[in-house]
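Q: Given only this backbone (284 positions), what sequence would you predict?
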């Protein structure tokens, strides 16, 4: 890339790795749309366009849907910008809307690929049982999925463990054309303060897979399925057997991993990025 640019008389491009945080509430997902919808990719590319020189398309580790947030989305871009990495980060943030932030910009090798080099992706889904205490529901409506009845958390936790490992996840995918066989390294429902938080990490995720897993676990929590029946749902390879897709507002892209899965390292990254845990409220 650089040599070809030099022979043509153009300034060589350099590849930059970006780590992005964004609030997905106001976006029609990551992917740029020719019909003009507001997207995260479009916003970042517009910020580059405001800088001098040539810039390529911005490629992300994952293409999040409308309403999905990111705590640490990784992307790469080829750019002619000569400014140092930290100055580039500041310049981009000066031109980005307030619901997208570049956390880090780093020059990388020309062969770095945000999507195809990614070895695992980690997501977080936030739930809050609000039946007895709805405080914060209005303020967090675009951040957390509310649950309006009590659920059996222990049963949901047992069911989640059945999904770890390599499986055909056809029952948990919507309109998917890629191979449905995926490996989940982590599927762990945790009580964190006043919230239930589902932590998932895998070598790849199908369309709506996380949101369907959450919907199915809620069925378990409400007694519609037993934990062991989730095994039969998985084996059926039939989307009609699993629970509904829950809302996008509780879903966060947490981490893109470019090394082999290491639970301790991933937990450290998540602890640094995840939203603070709200305390359990005492009854008045």
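A: Predicted residues:
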């Amino acid at each position: 890339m650089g040599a070809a640019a030099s022979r043509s008389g153009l300034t060589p491009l350099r590849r930059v790795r970006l780590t992005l945080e964004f609030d997905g509430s106001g976006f029609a997902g990551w992917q740029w749309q020719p019909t003009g919808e507001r997207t995260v990719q479009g916003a970042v590319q517009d910020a580059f366009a405001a800088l001098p020189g040539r810039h390529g398309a911005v490629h992300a580790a994952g293409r999040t849907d409308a309403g999905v947030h990111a705590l640490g989305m990784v992307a790469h871009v080829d750019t002619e910008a000569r400014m140092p990495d930290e100055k580039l980060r500041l310049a981009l943030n000066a031109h980005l809307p307030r619901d997208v932030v570049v956390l880090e910009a780093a020059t990388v090798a020309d062969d770095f690929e945000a999507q195809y080099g990614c070895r695992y992706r980690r997501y977080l889904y936030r739930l809050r049982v609000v039946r007895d205490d709805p405080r914060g529901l209005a303020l967090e409506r675009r951040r957390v999925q509310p649950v309006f009845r009590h659920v059996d958390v222990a049963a949901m936790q047992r069911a989640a463990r059945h999904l770890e490992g390599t499986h055909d996840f056809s029952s948990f995918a919507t309109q998917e054309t890629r191979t449905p066989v995926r490996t989940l390294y982590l599927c762990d429902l945790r009580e964190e303060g006043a919230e239930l938080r589902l932590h998932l990490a895998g070598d790849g995720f199908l369309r709506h897979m996380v949101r369907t897993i959450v919907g199915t676990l809620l069925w378990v929590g409400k007694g519609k399925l037993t934990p062991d029946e989730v095994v039969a749902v998985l084996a059926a390879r039939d989307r009609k057997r699993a629970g509904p897709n829950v809302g996008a507002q509780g879903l966060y892209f947490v981490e893109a991993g470019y090394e082999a899965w290491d639970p301790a390292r991933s937990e450290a990254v998540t602890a640094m990025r995840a939203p603070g845990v709200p305390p359990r409220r005492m009854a008045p």
